[in-house]
Amino acid sequence: MTSSASVFKDYLSAGFSSDNCCSYAVSLAAARRGLQVEWLGKPFFKHLRVPLNKANQLGNLYRISDGNRRIIFNKTLPFHTSKDVLRAVKDKFESAATLSGYGVTTTNPKLYDLEDKKSRKQLFKDVTYPVVIKPVKGSMGKSVFANIENKKELKQAVKQLSGKVVCERYVQGKEYRVYALGERPVAAVRRQPPYVIGNGADTIEELIEAKNHERREKGLPRIKTDEATHLKLAKDKLTLSSVPSLNTCITLSDKLGRSSGGLIERVELSELDDAVGFCSGVQAAFPELEVFAADVIDTGSELVAIEINTRPQISSLLNPDLGEPFDFADAFVLHCFGVQDSEQSVPAPNAKLLLSQLEQGVSRTSFADTQLSDEAPVITEPNAALLHNQGNIHQLILQRAAWQRGFRVESFKNSKGHARWSVSCHEKTLRFRQNMPSVTSLKTRNITNNKFETKRKLVEAGIAAPAGEKFKVSNTDAVLKWYKQQPEGTRVVVKPIDGAGGKGVTSNIQTADELKAALEYAQSEWVVVEEHITGDDYRLICSGGRFLAAIHRLPASVTGDGKHTIEQLIKLKNDERQANPYLKKCVIRYDEAMEYRLKKHGFHLQTVLPNNEKLYLNDIANITAGGDSVDVTEQVHNDFKRLAESAQLAFTDLAYCGVDILARDITAPIAEQQTAIIEINANCDVALHHFPSVGSPRDTAGEIINDLFNTTELKPASRFFRVRGKVTGVGYRKWAARRCAALGLDADIRNHGKSVEIRAYGSHSALDQLHNELIKGPKNAVPTDVVCRDCDYARVAQGIKVEKD
User: Fold this and answer.
1) Comparing C-alpha atoms, which of 22, 28, 34 is closest to residue 73?
2) CA dihedral over 669, 673, 677, 678, signed as positive or negative
3) Which residue, 657, 469, 624, is CA-closest to 549?
C-alpha cells in the first residue's frame, strides 16, 4: 500500500521526531477514515498507570472509536494488550524460548547474571564465538555488543554491562525489520549500520559530527559514539582520531537501524525468505499481539528472530531513507477497525496546539477538532416487563449487553461459595462481582466505599470537595467543637463513612441539637461531617474516562389530586413503579424521617392534598427510598461532563463509576455556581439509566461492555426451535420470553399442538445459550427434546412476541 506524497508529508509535518510520529500518523489516518480520535492527557496517564517520561510523552496516548470498538493506543500498542504478554516479549530470553516452542528459529540466547560470580564465570566458559551480548530487557540497540569474536572483546563488553544479560550466537546475513498486522506481514525495511565516508581531511569524529548535523535537520537520531563504536573501530585498527582516505566507507558499529544512526531502506516482502510463515509462527507464540515488528536476520535459507517489538516505530515506513514509503498508519487503522469508508478530506491538525491543550491539564481533546459526542445512545426498552424477577437487574442488563455483542456469559461460585460471573470473547475473559468487573481493584473499591478517603483522593487530584472531617460517633464533643469553629450560619451534612443508598444521612443541619440527633440517626461507628452544599442531586455515569449519561435524582414525592390521602397517593405511586424493573423495589416507605417531615409541614398520612400540589416526602434524593429519576443527559453542561470524567480518572483501576454531584443548575458553567462531588460509586446502578422515571433510556450497559472488551463478535443469525414434552399449560412460553429478553434476542413464541415453537434472532452465542436452556425449562415443565435449525430472519418479529392460544 502506498499513498500520495502529500499524505506522508502530512504525517511527518507535526514537528515530532522520527521516533515520535506514530501517534500523529495513526490518528490522522483514522480521522480520514471517518473515525473519532481523541488525544488523552495527564489524568489518563495517571489513571492508566503510564509514567510520563521520554518513552511515554503527551501525544503518545490516544483513543480511536468507530461507535462499537473504542481502543486506547500507546503509539502503535493497543492498550488492552495483556501485561503478561508484554513482559514475556520484552524479556529476550523468555521471548526466544516461547518462539522456539512454535517453530520460529532464534539466536538461542542464554541467560546470565553479571552480578553473580558463578554466572559470570559460566558465561566465559559457555561462549562460542562470534556472539552478541545485550541486556535481557534492553531496547533501541542500547548497550548491545554485536559480533564479538574473542575473549578480549567479550571482557571489554562485559565491563560496560551489569545485571542480567543474554549471550547469543551472532548470525551472518541481512538484517530486516518485518511489520505485521496479526499474522500477516505487510511491509519490511532493511536496516543498515551507521557509517561515514572519508574526505581525506577530517577525522572520523569530525565526520560523525558533520553527519549528525545533517541528521538533526531531518529529525533523525544521531550517531552515538559508545563502547560498541570503539570496539568496531579497533577491529579495523582505527580510532576516532583516524583520518580516512577519500571516499573510504567506515562502518561505525555492528548495531543496525536508525536508532543507532544507520539508514533504513524499504524493501519488498518478496526479498525475504518465507515472511508469511515466520509471522504466522510469531502470532501463534503470542496470539494477543495485533501488531508487531520482528527484527530478523535472513541467512539466505531461513529467517532468524532477533527481537519482537510490540510498539514498533513506523517512521521507517512512512519516511525511509531509501525506497518507496508505505502507509502503515492507514493499514493499521483498517486492520484494527475493518473500516471500508473511503478516505475523507481532513486537514492535518496542529500538533503543537493539541499538545498545548494537554499540557494545560485537560483529560482529553479531539484530534480533528470535532465534538466529542460519545454519550450513551438513546435506546428503547420494549421488553422491560420481561426482565422482572431475574435477579440483580444491573447484572442482568450487563450480561444482556454481552450476549447481544456475541460474547459468552457464565455464572459460578468462587472458593468461598460467593456468586460470581464472567464474560468471555475470543481475546479474553473478565470476571465480575455483582456489577463490578475484575479490572476495578479491591483497593479502589475500598477507597470509594469510604467517603472520607474518596474526598481525600479527589482533593489530591485538584477536584473540589465539601470541607469536612471524619469523627467517631461516640466522640460528640469533638464533633460539636469542630462545628462551633465553622463560620456562623454554616450548614452541615452527617453521613456514615461507609454508607450507601442514603441510609443514615442527615442534611441541612443548622443547630447543635440537630447535629446531635443526626449522629444518633447515622447508626455508624464513624461518620463524615461536612459542609452542606445547596443544590440538586445528579448522578453522572462515566466509563473509560468519558461521560455516558446523567440522571437528576429527586426526593420521593406525591402530587395531590384533591381526592386521595397522602397514604393513598403513596400506594398508587408504588403500584405504578411495579412496571419498571429497576424501580419496582425502590418504593416509598413511611418511616420516622418521613413522619418528622410531614409534621414539620403540618401534614399527616390522612391529609388530602389539593389538586396538582407536589409534596416532597424526604430531604434526601434517594431513588431506592422512592425518589424519582429524570434523564438529563443532553442538558448537562460540558463543565460537568469534564468534572465527572476527571473524578473517575482520579482513581486507578476503576472501570466505570457513578459520580454524584450537587449543583444548582447542571446546564450552566461551574464557575457561575457552587458545586461539589459528594460520592464516587464503583459498583453503581447501571439500570438507573436504562429505566428512568422520566426521559429516554440510555444504553450505559452496552457502552461499558464496549469499553471493557474493545471488540465485537456479533454475527447475528435466526433460528427455529421446537420444544416437545410437557411444555404447554405450564408457563413455558412466558418463561421462554423472559429468557429471550435476558439474552437480548428478538423472538416469536407460540404453541403448536403440544409443542412450543420459537423463532429467535440475535448473536450466535445467545442463540446457543437459549438452545441449552430450552431443554431445562421452568419449574413445572418437562421438555423431552429440542429441535433446532436456521430460519429466515424475515419471519422473526422485532422485540418479543408471545402468541396467545
Assistant:
1) 22
2) negative
3) 657
Residue 404 CB partners (closer than 8 Å, separation 6+): 702, 714, 744, 762, 763, 766
Please report, for residues 18, 179, 235, 319, the alpha-carbon distance to residue 10 in angstroms, rounded to integers and kept in the order given: 13, 22, 43, 11
SS (H, E, C) 174-237: EEEEEEEECCEEEEEEEEECCEEECCCCCCHHHHHHHHHHHHHHCCCCCCCCCHHHHHHHHHCC
Which residue bears the cell 511515554?
A: 56
β-partners of residue 608 are 565
Residues whose CB falls within 8 Å of the CB of residue 749, separated by 6 or more in sequence, listed in order: 733, 736, 737, 740, 756, 757, 758, 800, 801, 802, 803
Find, among 309, 294, 338, the residue nearest to 105 by Cα. 294
d(CA 654, CA 443): 10
Q: What CA–CA distances, in Å, run from 285 to 99, 168, 277, 291?
A: 6, 20, 13, 13
Cβ-based neighbour number of residue 65 at 10 Å: 22
Percentage helix, strand, coil, to 5, in the chain? 35, 25, 40
Q: How far apart are CA 565 and CA 580, in angstroms?
A: 24
Extract the C-alpha cell encoding 436: 463490578
Q: Which of 719, 692, 744, 699 is nearest to 796 (CA)?
A: 719
Helix (H) or strand (E) run with residue 553 in it: strand 546-554
Give the three cell numbers for residue 81: 494488550
SS3 at position 115: coil
Q: Which residue has the cell 566465559?
A: 124
Pairing outcome for strands 746-752 and 800-802: parallel
Grid cell for residue 316: 521507517
pLDDT per position as a tens digit, 158-177: 888 889 998 999 988 888 99
Cell of 565: 390521602
Would you tell me how many other CB atoms lie within 10 Å of the CB of residue 510? 12
Backbone angles phi, psi at 281, to 5 degrees: -65, -40
SS (H, E, C) 356-382: HHHHCCCCEEECCCCCCCCCCCECCCC
A 10 A CB-CB count for 798 gives 9
pLDDT of residue 797: 65
Q: Position of cell 413464541?
A: 749
Contact residues for 599 (Cβ-Cβ < 8 A; gap 6+) = none
Report the percent of the chain where pLDDT is more than 90.
Answer: 53
How many whole angstroms separate alpha carbon 152 and alpha carbon 648?
Answer: 57
Identify the pLDDT of residue 141. Answer: 66
pLDDT tens-place string over residues 396-446: 999 999 999 999 999 999 888 999 999 998 878 999 999 999 999 999 999
Give the start-end residues of each E strand in 664-716: 676-681
pLDDT tens sequence across 263-322: 888 999 998 988 999 999 999 999 989 899 999 999 988 999 999 999 988 888 888 888
382 pLDDT band (50/70/90 cuts)? confident
pLDDT of 621 over the 70 cut: yes
Amino acid present at 753: G
Burial class, 393, CB count within 10 angstroms (exposed 0-12 / middle 13-18 / buried 19+): buried
DSSP-derived 3-state class of residue 24: helix
Give the amino acid at 558.
V
Max distance between CA atoms of the chain, in angstroms, equals 110
Contact residues for 59 (Cβ-Cβ < 8 A; gap 6+): 16, 20, 23, 24, 39, 351, 354, 355, 358
The SS3 of residue 397 is helix
Handedness of CA 667, 668, 674, 678 (dihedral sign): positive
Grid cell in block for residue 183? 499474522
